[in-house]
Amino acid sequence: MSNEIKAVEKMDKDKIKKAVRDILEAIGEDPDREGLVDTPKRIANMFEEIFAGLHQDPREHLQIFFQEENHEEMVIVKDISFYSVCEHHLVPFFGKAHVAYIPRGGKLTGLSKLARVVETAARRPQLQERIAKTIADSIVEVLDPYGVVVILEAEHMCMTMRGIKKPGSKTITSAVRGIFEKDVAARAEAMSLINIK
Ligand SMILES: Nc1nc2c(ncn2[C@@H]2O[C@H](COP(=O)(O)OP(=O)(O)OP(=O)(O)O)[C@@H](O)[C@H]2O)c(=O)[nH]1
Ligand SMILES: [Zn+2]
């Protein structure tokens, strides 16, 4: 599995504080004025939260699974809200993730664990495509299911508040693995149950 999903060491909050102070100075602000004096600290705390996924391996959440004899029917958790940060501009993109898989040999994971995988993949500087890929590959690697479909729909602030400025535009990405790659009917069933509006 690729390096991008591995956990990394804790972040250096003092370095973040210094960098934020430098940015404030560079944009012509006074980093010592009342409203800004605690901003480097706030941003360091916020980065620790919104980039928490950097310190986790999404596959760990799936290690707790249960065996349900012969259950080999599709499981879908849809409308999992997520927030991420685009790696090009470091501004948010956010939306919903939908995860479907067909367990093999009754090897099921907890439903909340699928949402935890989404969270871990999203809470780092990201590309939307890579989040879907990471979620799908983590599930394949740990649960060895017959197939996985992951669909993400999101609005990118870098396309709304700046640049091309197209508020309301939605980006939809997917990662399809296993049986869903070849079996058109299975894929159509998953898509119709996910029913993106
Ligand atoms: N594929 C992909 N592209 C993204 C994602 N988030 C942001 N981008 C795009 O990354 C691209 C970066 O393009 P650049 O030309 O290097 O940067 P830029 O000059 O700021 O681009 P504009 O946004 O077009 O102004 C833009 O087209 C963004 O829309 C993502 O999750 N996936
Ligand atoms: Zn961007």
Task: Pick out its properties.
197 residues; alpha+beta; GTP Cyclohydrolase I, Chain A, domain 1; GTP Cyclohydrolase I, domain 2; 2 domains; 5-stranded mixed β-sheet; two-stranded antiparallel ribbon; 8 helices; 7 strands; 39% helix; binds guanosine-5'-triphosphate; binds zinc ion; GTP binding
Account of the protein in words:
- The model has no long low-confidence stretch (mean pLDDT about 95).
- The strands form 2 sheets. The chain has a 5-stranded mixed sheet.
- The two termini are about 35 Å apart.
- It has 8 helices and 7 strands.
- It is α+β, with helices and mostly antiparallel strands and about 200 residues long.
- Belongs to the GTP cyclohydrolase I family.
- Its EC number is 3.5.4.16.
Average pLDDT works out at 94
Indicate the structural class: alpha+beta
- Helices, by number, come to 8
In CATH terms, the superfamily of the largest domain is: GTP cyclohydrolase I, C-terminal domain/NADPH-dependent 7-cyano-7-deazaguanine reductase, N-terminal domain
By CATH reckoning, the class of the largest domain would read Alpha Beta
CATH topology of the largest domain: GTP Cyclohydrolase I, domain 2
Poorly predicted regions are none
**Succession of helices and strands:** HHHEEEEHEHEHEHH
Q: Main sheet?
A: 5 strands, mixed
Q: What percentage of amino acids are in beta strands?
A: 15-25%
Tally of individual domains: 2
